[in-house]
Amino acid sequence: MIERVRAVLVTADDTMLVIRRTRPGIPEYWVLPGGGVEPGDESREAALHREIHEEIAGKADIIRLLHTMESDDERQLFYLARIATWSFDDRTGPEFSAEGRGEYALEEIPLTMEGLDGLELKPEEIAHVLRGAISAGSLGVEASL
Fold first, then answer.
1. How far apart are CA 113 and CA 133, in angstroms?
2. Spatial distance between the Cα atoms of 48 and 29, rounded to a whole number of angstroms
3. pLDDT, tens digit only, all 145 positions of the chain
4. What pLDDT is stored for residue 94 in this prediction?
5. Hey, is 53 helix, strand or coil?
6. Tell me, what DSSP letter sits at residue 90?
7. How many beta carbons lie within 10 A of that of residue 120, not counting itself?
8. Are 58 and 87 in contact (CB under 8 A)?
């Protein structure tokens, strides 16, 4: 089974970092930073730290597992994390140089219902989970720091 890890990266300003994906012939969409767990990763959390470093040259404090999605051949784990520093210009992930992968643009959006409503976050299930957590006030980033 393929495992992927992604992070809801909350900034000091209570915004969230998302990646806007633009690919030929596909409507624009947004994803959370992250990627596949590799055999050399010591843990899922270690994989997430590696992915955050590759994709946005950032360092994050992982707070907790927020949600798990599972299908027949894939498991995605979504973590809530606090991020203080990042530099999209210093990203190193292999996907940025691969031909035909389209464009990746880092954006900072308000971690509010209005902020989420302004984008097509994929997968749809995590957008639904985030909307529910925001409306319930259960993200708990502040309490966990």
1. 10
2. 21
3. 999 999 999 999 989 999 999 988 899 999 999 999 999 999 999 999 999 999 999 999 999 999 999 999 999 999 999 998 998 788 776 665 566 678 888 999 999 999 999 999 999 999 999 999 999 988 765 434 3
4. 63
5. helix
6. G
7. 13
8. yes
pLDDT at 97 (0 to 100):
58
Which is it for the CA torsion 14, 60, 45, 69, positive or negative? Answer: positive
CA contacts within 13 A on the Cβ side of 133: 16
The 3-state secondary structure of 99-145 reads CCCCEEEEEEEECCHHHHHCCCECCHHHHHHHHHHHHHCCCCHHHHC
**Cβ-proximal residues to 80 (8 Å cutoff; 6+ apart), any chain:** 7, 8, 10, 62, 63, 64, 65, 66, 139, 140, 141, 144
Q: How many helices (H) and strands (E) does the chain have?
A: 4, 7
Q: Tally the residues of the chain.
A: 145
Number of other CB atoms surrounding residue 59 within 10 Å: 13
The reported pTM is 0.89
Residue 22 in contact with residue 103, Cβ under 8 Å? yes
